Amino acid sequence: MRFRRCSILFLEPRASLSFDLTAMADGGDGLREVVQWWALAPHLEAPVQVDEAEAALLGRVSPGRWRDMATLAEPDRGHVTRLIDVGLLVDEGAPGAPGSRDEAQRQAHWYPAAALLHRQSRWSGEDSAAAMEARRLFTARDLREQLGPPAPEIVERGHGDPIALPQGPAAQAIAGNRRVTCRNFDTQRSLSPAQLSALLAATVMAHARVEAEPGVAFLKKAVPSGGALHAAESYLLVQRVDGIDPGLYHYRPLEHALVAMPCPPMEGLAKRLLAGQHWFADAPVHLLLTVRYARAFWKYRNHPKAYRAALLDLGHISQAMFTAAGEQGLGAYVTAAINEVDIEQALGLEPLAEGPLLACGAGWRGAAQVTPELDPLAVVWPG
């Protein structure tokens, strides 16, 4: 049997304190500190506790070259067997996960720290709205009482008197725009296909394709993208669009078309994918934005800025959604508080090959502001 170490691995010593009556009887303070080693690998869902011998062995095994078990001393063979069982070492001949997940990670060319952040920051089955209410972190008063005041909303730097800038029509137009995140969607009104088409054309549609070299093609969209790679992928959760059945769809940007996908039961699906944010779940259409990392990191391999660029790409799309929705008199939202694991399962994704990072959506506003919205200029809710 041949094996090698997983491609990305971090070892963390964690200290924990416990009360020990015996230590107090011996004249101490009664506190006993225990240091344990934990292995964190992005292709695994959770950290794995290892002992000192296993930690040392992991440090000696190459992530690139396969090694024969027969070359090991007898005591190390038992450690290797357990480390293969928990996924930190990969058996060359073993099919399926975790080896396949490690291989997907290798093919995507992740920067190691970014890969670990991505894996460990994903949610599954979270209800963020209920959690905020339970912890009394829902209103501004709640936040102030529980957390104290935040850092100041502005900071002043530099020297001398400020140089005032003119506030002409352009500045006033921006100040009076309708970019107010919608948390009160009309559950009775649907979007027309033309409205949905306009939203997608302004955000994720490919308006041109250029093949710069054989097998090297780039898309031209209405939003910018790091390296012109446009690695974002778009999936729609349709709830109320005239003539389109409710369900999950994959968007094809060159064809400007939707293709139906297998879909879990629709009841409560939007709320679950949006981590309990019921004020967004009522939107008639949701855009679930993922990144195909093999494309995003093709040019920027193992690069410390590549993951940041991927996040920025989705930010451009979400801002374009607000603009396009406002032009049609619609409300819009964007959120990163999503249940990534639930979305991955619904779409059949391997998270280190392609994973969701944001959701945004649009629709008609409701007649009443049931959930508070930040609208100090009263452009949406007069008075």
Please state roughly what percent of the residues sit in beta strands, choosing from under 5%, 5-15%, 15-25%, 25-35%, 35-45% or over 45%. Answer: 15-25%
Oligomer designation: single chain
The total count of strands amounts to 14
CA distance, first residue to last residue: 74 Å
Per CATH, what is the topology of the largest domain? NADH Oxidase
The CATH class of the largest domain, by name, is Alpha Beta
What is the CATH homologous superfamily assignment of the largest domain? NADH Oxidase
Spatial order of the strands in the main sheet? Answer: 11-10-9-12-14-13
Instruction: Provide the CATH architecture of the largest domain.
Output: 3-Layer(aba) Sandwich
State the order of secondary-structure elements, H for helix, E for strand.
EEHEEHEHEHHHHHHEEEEEHHEHHEHE
* Count, helices: 14
> What is the global morphology?
globular
Kindly list the characteristics that best describe this protein:
single chain; 383 residues; alpha+beta; NADH Oxidase; 2 domains; three-stranded antiparallel β-sheet; 14 helices; globular
Describe the fold and architecture:
The chain is globular. α9 packs antiparallel against α13 (306-327). It has a 6-stranded antiparallel sheet with strand order 11-10-9-12-14-13, with helices on both faces. A 3-stranded antiparallel sheet has the order 5-1-6. The mean pLDDT is 93. With 383 residues, the protein is of the alpha+beta class. It has helices at residues 21-25, 52-60, 74-85, 99-108, 112-120, 128-134, 140-147, 169-175, 193-203, 269-273, 278-281, 293-296, 306-327, 340-347; strands spanning 2-5, 10-19, 31-40, 48-50, 67-68, 89-91, 208-213, 216-220, 232-238, 247-252, 257-260, 285-292, 331-335, 354-363. It folds into 2 domains: 2-108, no CATH class; 180-363, NADH Oxidase.
